Amino acid sequence: MAHTQTHTHELDADRLRDDPLILIIPGLNNSNEQHWQSRWESQIPDCERVDLGMWDDPHRNTWVNKLNLAVHRAGRPVILVAHSLGCLAATWWAENEQPAYGNPVVGALLVAPPDVERAGVDARLARFAPAQRAKLPFPAFLAASENDPYCSLRVARGLASDWGATFAYAGSIGHINADSGIGDWDFGQLLLAQLLREHRTRQGCLAAESRRRAYPRFTRLPWTQSPARSDQPADW
């Protein structure tokens, strides 16, 4: 899909070319053209949708395996941007693959995860139950809405705590989807920009440490002296 430059929240084309690949992970029934995920995909350079397939009849292991293939095909650091059931696919991927911290996934934005364990849940969502509870091996935000019909704020906060994600209150905007009327969803772009800033900072620190180790500084001790130059008298 062709990409155009977006002008908000440090998501500019020049900087993003050197940043991680952003993988969009939709939920049940995919994300339509009005969904903020689709808008981001068309606006942000190096942003791709993971083709999980079986959008209206998902299978957990199939989704996890296809996400795993997309992550490793990237051949570079990755940031996951998941919505709804896509959040469960992302967290089950982390549980199954047990990647090293921050490698290859350097961050994740998890938006409106559904409560797949509640009574009466859609059978298609129940296939992803139980929600895995281990800490994620990468920095993450979990954004949730106060009136999401698929997950209470209490459950969302609990998932954020279990996953070691920073909880981000998104207001009262339903399931944070196309029906929420949020357009490009500026708040979400702020969270993504923060993940990118943190990654850039970590990379800068690693580069500085690498340079420090490659070029150690030697301190001249007070009782040492340089070899005498040939053009200096012996008693100089």
| Amount of helix | 25-40%
Provide the residue-averaged pLDDT: 87
H/E topology pattern: HEHEHEHEHEHEH
The assembly state of the depicted protein chains is: single chain
Number of strands: 6
Query: CATH superfamily name?
Result: Alpha/Beta hydrolase fold, catalytic domain
In terms of per-residue confidence, which ranges show pLDDT below 50 for 5 or more consecutive residues? 1-8, 218-236
Helix count equals 7
Q: Compute the CA-based radius of gyration.
A: 23 Å
What is the count of structural domains?
1
Determine and state the CATH class: Alpha Beta
**CATH fold descriptor:** Rossmann fold
- Class by alpha and beta content: alpha/beta
Intertermini distance: 73 Å
Strand content range: 5-15%
Strand order of the largest sheet: 2-1-3-4-5-6
CATH architecture classification name: 3-Layer(aba) Sandwich
Main sheet, how many strands, which sense, barrel?
6 strands, parallel
Shape: globular
